[in-house]
Amino acid sequence: MSAKSVVMDGNTAAAHIAYRVNDCFAVFPITPSSTMAELVDEWAAKGLKNVWGQVASIQQMQSEGGAAGAVHGALQSGALTTTFTASQGLLLMLPNMYKIAGELTPCVFHVAARALATQALSIFGDHSDVMSARMTGFALLGAATVQESHDLALVAQVATLEARVPVLFFFDGFRTSHEENTILLIPDEQIRAAMDDDLVRAHRAHALTPERPVIRGTTHNPDTFFQAREASNPYYARMPDIVQRAMDRVGALTGRQYRLFRYSGHPEADRVAIVIGSAFEVLDETAAWLNARGEKVGVLQVLLYRPWDAKRFLDALPKTVRKVAVLDRTKESGGPGDPLYLDVVTTFAEAMAAGTVPAMPVIVGGRYGLSSKDFDPAMAKAVFDELKQAAPKRGFTVGIHDDVSHTSLTVDASVDIEPPDVVRALFFGLGADGTVGANKNSTKILASGEGRYAQGYFVYDSKKSGSYTISHLRFGPKPIRAPYLLKSASFIGVHKFEFLYKLDTLAAAAQGATVLVNSPYPADAVWNELPHDVQQQCIDRKLKLYVIDASRVAATPSSP
Q1: Which residues face 297 on adjacent strands?
Q2: What is the pLDDT of residues 383-433, one digit of tens each?
Q3: Beta strands in 396-524 (DSSP E)
Q4: What would you measure as the largest C-alpha separation in the chain, in angstroms?
Q5: pLDDT exceeding 70 applies to what percent of the chain?
Q6: What distance in Å separates the CA atoms of residue 72 and residue 70, rounded to the nearest whole number?
Q7: Cα angle at 159 between 155 and 160, to 5 degrees?
Q8: Helices (H), 410-520
Q9: 0.90 exceeded by the pTM?
Q10: Would you give the distance in Å from CA 18 to the centre of its chain?
Q11: What gap in Å lies between CA 105 and CA 435, rounded to an integer?
C-alpha cells in the first residue's frame, strides 16, 4: 500500500503511531502534549483498532505521577503501554522512569518538549524537561520535523522492544508539536510489518504472573546494589546499534532513511553547528544558502542523544572541521556548559587522548530558543559568522539582546533566505474566534493537490482563549523546511479592527502586499479611522488595502 500525503501537526503524527502499536495508555494532559492524549482517547471511543486488531484501553489519571505509575504497572503485566507528557509533568514521572529503566522494561514515553518553570512559568518549548531526564536510564531520541515525529515514533517502539531499554521520544513543543506540515503517512500494513511479533511475545512473556513467579523490585544493601546497577551496561552498549537497525527497518519500508547522527552541508566544511530538534532545519537551510555563496559550513543533527555513541558522532563529522558551535535549547545554571556541549567536548577530549582524531577543533557552546524564542536563518547565520572569529564567543546566546551579561551575538535581521516561490500569509485573530481552525483547514486544502505543500504555525500567548492569535501560513511547490516565524508576508489578514491600534500588524508586510481588515467602517470611510502609523506603512510599502465588515455579514440571516 502506498503512503498517503496528508497535512497534520507533530502531535497527531506521533499519536498516530503510538495508538497503533500500544495496548494501553495512561494519560494526564499537559500543554503542549495534550493533543496526543485527546486523540488516542477519541480514537478509542470511536472503536479504532491498533495493528493487532484491538481497541486500546485509555485511562486518564489524576496526575502525571499517577500516569507514570499506571504505565509502570501495565508494563509489568505484559501490556504495551505508553503515555504523553511535557515540562513539570515529565518531572513528576521521573521516579517511575528510574524504576522502569532499572527493570529493563520496554516502552516509549512521547514528550512535546517544553520549558520548566524557573523565574517564571512558561507553556512554551525548549529542552529543559528532556535534559532533566538524562539520568533516568531512558534512551533519548529526538525528532526535528513533523515527518520525523511520525517516523521516529515507530523507530522508538521497534527499538525498545529489542533493546529492553525504554525510550523517551521527544520533539519541540509547539514548534513541531503544533506545526501543520505535509507528511507521508505510514500505512498500517507497514507499521505492522515493522513490529517483530517475537519481540512483542517476549515482552508479554516477561509479565509478572503467579504462573511463573519471579522476584522483581527488591531492596538491595551495599553488598549487592553497585554490582547490580552496573549489570545493565551491556544493554546500553547495544542500544545504538539496535536503534540504527530499527531506523534501517523502518527506512526499508518507508523509503526514508535515518542515522543516529545526520550531517548535512559542505563535504569539506571547516565550520559546523551541532544541534538537536527543529533548529536543524533552520541551520541546514542556512548552511545550504551560505555554501551556495562560497562558504564551507555544515550542520550535524543529533537524533539519538542517549545512549551517546561517540564513534558514530565522530564518523559523521567531516575531517576538515576546525571550529564547532554546539547549540543547546536549555540552560544549566552554574555549569561549565550546557548538556550537549559538554558531551561534544568530552567526546573530542577522549578521542584526542586515544589518538583517534588528529586535532581538537575549537568548540564553543551557545543557547537559543528557550521558551520557544524564535530561531531563524538570520540567527543561524550569526552562529556561523561567529565561528569565523579568531576567538569565538563561548557560552553565547542568540535570538535575544543580553544587556545584562552580554552573551548575545549580533544578528542581521535583514537576512531572508526563503525562496520566492513560497507564498507567505499572516492572519491576526482573537483566541477562539475560529481563525486558527480555519487556517488549519486552509493548509489541508492548499496541500491537497499533487506537488503542493503547505505549512501552518499558530502563535498563541499563555492566556489562549480571548487573547490574540497569529497564524503563519506558507505554501508552495516544494516541501517547506522553515520552522520559524514569517518575517515577510504577501498577504495579511486582520480579523479584529482594534488590533491595528494594539499590535504592529503590518510589520511583516512585504512591498505591495495585500491587507484585508475586518472593519466596521466602509471602504470610503475607513482610511480616516486607521492609526497614523498604519496609514504611513500602507503608503510607504504601497500596500493594497481591502476591508469587509465580516461581523455584520456573520450576523445577517441567510436567505431561505
Answers
A1: 271
A2: 999 999 999 999 999 999 999 999 999 999 999 999 999 999 999 998 888
A3: 396-398, 423-430, 453-459, 468-476, 489-494, 509-518
A4: 88
A5: 98
A6: 5
A7: 120
A8: 435-446, 499-502
A9: yes
A10: 16
A11: 44
